Amino acid sequence: MGIGDHEGGLVIVIVDETVRAGLLIGGRPFRGVHGLAGQIGDMRSGVDGASLNEVATLPSLKEYLAAHPGETDGWVAIAARHLHEAVLAISGFIAPGAILIGGALPDDVFEAIIARLSRERDDKIRDLVIAPWIPSVRRASFPWAGVAVGAALRPFSETLLPDDRP
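^ that's the sequence the OP posted. Answer follows.
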């Protein structure tokens, strides 16, 4: 995909009705023993212990906008703080070469979340000597159709691209 280290893998976080993460490790999707790898929406984080599904999804954004019409900054701050903790957990255990984020949120909201995640990452690196292992989070290409495009490309990847692993 031209991103990250082939051996380091890639994590794609999808934010829509729930929060999920797709894991590509060594160029192959990782499903977990029960096929539930990447189901991170129920992960509790932050000082409030809220799950990602409660504070960082399209329904939670709609609920926030109903109470605060036209104002997304407060929701972005909360969602980004919780997503940053998920990024830290993913980075600490999997150490991916790259983390991408995409899904059904409006473009300006995704851009604000990514900017906020970058600031949180920079603060961690500045404050902790051990933090440079945290990869930057970037916007996924085709944010609305990324999952479908990735699934459609998978058979071509398996058939046409040689597996260079021993």
